Amino acid sequence: ELSLFCKRDVNGVGVLYDLLRSPWLQALLKVKPSLSARPVFLGEQCLQLASPSLCHVEIVENPSALLSAHDTVAQKDFEPILPPLPDNIPENEEAMRIVCLVKNKQPLGATIKRHEITGDIVVARVIHGGLADRSGLLYAGDKLVEVNGVSVEGLEPEQVIHILSLSQGTIMFKLIPVSERPVSNQTTLYVRAMADYWPLQDSAIPCADAGLPFKKGEILQIVDQNDVLWWQARQVSDLSACAGLIPSNHLLKRKQREFWWSQPFQPHVCLKSTICECKILQLPDDMQIDEKCVETVELVITCTHCLAFNIRYFLPFPAGFRRSMRLCRRKSQNSQQPCYARCPSSCYSVAAAPYEEVVRYQRHPTDRNRLIVLVGPSGVGVNELRRRLIGMNPHHFQSAVPHTTRAQKSYEENGREYHYVSKETFENMVYSHRMLEHGEYKGHLYGTSVDAVRTVLDEGKICIVDLEPRGIQMARTHELKPYIIFIKPPSMSCMRQSRKNARIITDYYVNMKFKEEDLQEMEDCAKKTEAQFGQFFDQVIVNDNLQEACVQLLSAVHQAQDEPQWVPATWICSDTQP
Ligand SMILES: Nc1ncnc2c1ncn2[C@@H]1O[C@H](COP(=O)(O)OP(=O)(O)OP(=O)(O)O)[C@@H](O)[C@H]1O
User: Fold this and answer.
1) Could you give the number of structural domains in the chain?
2) Where does this protein have coiled-coil stretches (predicted)?
3) Is 506's C-beta closer than 6 angstroms to any atom of ligand 1?
4) DSSP 3-state of 325
């Protein structure tokens, strides 16, 4: 594990943090006093765990060693009292092993199956960190002969499970050990789940109770990938827990695809997304725009047919106008049902990997600041928060100056309102993936470039941009290492209160109060955005009280720069930079 981190040049603090929290270190620290106080016999023939709670096992191979060990141990009183070994063990049962496990509230942590060829009941897998694993006595491939004195020959796995469920106290297995124990040469891997998973709803999982449910965005520690279909993992937020089964990368991808294709009407709708021509919604003709005396504001139009296209308009409006423009278009938008209303939430992620490998990263003080990306439904207060944050310390926080192909006006300065470039230059920037977002308005192109963000970062400042969720993918690069903050609306009742006096368009144009439908739209949009892009959010801030949200934003921005965070491994491994 450590060598893995070293190779990735991960900051030592993160490694130390993980190391100190690792369950095996905690366990070692716990048993150390007992180990120094009493001898533990560890040998090929006899293995007796002195731990009062677990188990004991004798391999009936060398009776004298067995007796000697037994005598020594028998002088001590251990709790709970384990049952005596059966005395009718035939001499030829050399490879037979008897394992007693003391049942507690925890599950046994092993699964069994019927061998496809021999029909024997065998241990299918031992769950990492579970009772059986900690005992070190059960291995995948061990053949069960008896459970609590009952022969399992001819029984179905379910019947064996039934016997186990009825047993109280200790469970005694008689088994034939697997001839070759699996050698685990796995390194621990950390991944971000890019999809939700509910084992209880998965009929294919070998044992639903052993499954680990997870939600997109959660960080998982993968401890076992021996099985091509079912991996074992733990939530990084609870590393002391025993691992659970999760579908492997390959399997989860297959499941996503199957689910996607099984949705009624959905395949043709989504297939369209790869071929459809974006139908750009036009601004209402009667909108009067005075381009003077206002700062730049982005107007975002997402194609209602295909979410793959995201057109962003940059208009010389005061901040806050973005929303008004959207409201004006609402009629035409509502007439077309958006793609995400008809697609399963996994629609977007169907082509993406279900797990993203991540590592703990902490920015070095001499490194460039991480890009801060704000995402949120229209009207939630993204612009307001950004404006306030920059206003707190304009020397430290800054937006990126957009590019445009429109002509420079007399009162404008190149590089202040916009970078004025030719259409050819702009298009070259788009083709060479140097635009985070771009769009067209009244025949002119507008866009935010990576160069503009880089300029802010190179000055040692923190660059704050707000992007439509579709733009997140473009920004997620090794160079920018964006920290994505989702600005979420509070509940409807809270919004009714907090937005009582808020205006969705500035005084300059229309001063409109939030209507009930505006709030509802905000809530719906937030839900959809979270469902579709939640896996990318590093932080979620609920914007109820503006002041509090602003404080939270400031703290999140500092956390992003100064505290260890999980980031995609490709951002750190220089040889695989995207
Ligand atoms: N927590 C809040 N309490 C009260 N009013 C708020 C709060 N947050 C934002 N507002 C107000 O709501 C209005 C819309 O906010 P803002 O313009 O920042 O939204 P936005 O998310 O940028 O939306 P759009 O993208 O459509 O511009 C503004 O008048 C703003 O002052």
Assistant:
1) 2
2) 512-563
3) no
4) helix
pLDDT of residue 348: 41
Residue 230 forms part of a structural domain: no
Evaluate whether residue 324 is within a structural domain.
no
pLDDT for 5:
59
Tokens of 449: 């470039």
3-state secondary structure at position 348: helix
Task: Print the domain residue range for 99.
Answer: 38-176
- Distance of CA 164 from the midpoint of ligand 1 (Å): 59
Where a domain ends, among 176, 205, 240? Answer: 176
What is the whole-number distance in angstroms between the Cα of residue 382 and the centre of ligand 1?
6
State if residue 323 touches ligand 1 by the CB under 6 angstroms criterion.
yes
Looking from the CA of residue 321, the nearest atom of ligand 1 is: 27
Q: Which two tokens stand for residue 96?
A: 């037979």
**Mean pLDDT over all residues of the chain?**
74
Give yes or no for a contact between 339 and 305, defined as CB atoms under 8 angstroms apart.
yes
> Which tens digits make up the pLDDT trace of 319-377?
323 333 333 333 333 433 333 333 333 334 444 688 999 999 999 989 999 999 999 99
451 and 543 in contact (C-beta within 8 Å)?
no
State the CATH number of the domain containing residue 143: 2.30.42.10
Instruction: For residues 505-531, give the mean pLDDT.
Output: 80
pLDDT of residue 67: 66
Question: Can you give the pLDDT at residue 558?
Answer: 95
Per-residue burial over 123-135, b if 16 or more Cβ lie within 10 Å, else e, is: bbbbbbbbbbbbb
Ligand 1, atom nearest to 386 Cα: 18
Task: Flag whether the ipTM exceeds 0.90.
Answer: yes
Check if the beta carbon of residue 144 is closer than 8 Å to that of residue 137. Answer: no
User: Domain with 490 in it: what CATH number?
Assistant: 3.40.50.300
Which of 218-227, 464-473, 552-561 is the least confident region? 464-473
Atom 16 of ligand 1, nearest CA residue? 381
Within 13 Å of residue 293, how many CA atoms lie on the same side as its CB? Answer: 6
CB of 380 within 6 A of ligand 1: the answer is yes
Domain membership flag for residue 108? yes
| Gyration radius (Cα) of the chain, Å | 30
How do residues 287-309 score in pLDDT, each as one tens digit? Answer: 333 333 333 333 333 333 323 22
**47 Cβ closer than 6 Å to some ligand 1 atom:** no
> What is the distance between the alpha carbons of residues 308 and 274, in angstroms, rounded to a whole number?
8
CB distance 379 to ligand 1 below 6 Å: yes
Residue identifier of the C-alpha nearest atom 22 of ligand 1: 383
Q: Give the end of a domain, one of 176, 200, 233.
A: 176
Q: Which of 301, 312, 315, 323 to mutate to test the pocket of ligand 1 (most atoms within 8 A of CB)?
A: 323
User: Within its chain, how far is the Cα of 422 from the centroid?
Assistant: 41
pLDDT band at 523 (very low <50, low <70, confident <90, very high): very high
Mark 20-45 as b/e (b = at least 16 C-beta within 10 Å).
eebeeeeeeeeeeeeeeeeeebeeeb
Q: Could you tell me if residue 181 is inside a domain?
A: no
Which amino acid appears at position 282 of this protein? Q
Least confident of 172-176, 253-257, 379-383, 527-531: 253-257
Cα(502) to ligand 1 centroid in Å equals 7
The tens digit of pLDDT for each residue in 30-58 reads 888 777 665 443 322 222 222 333 333 43
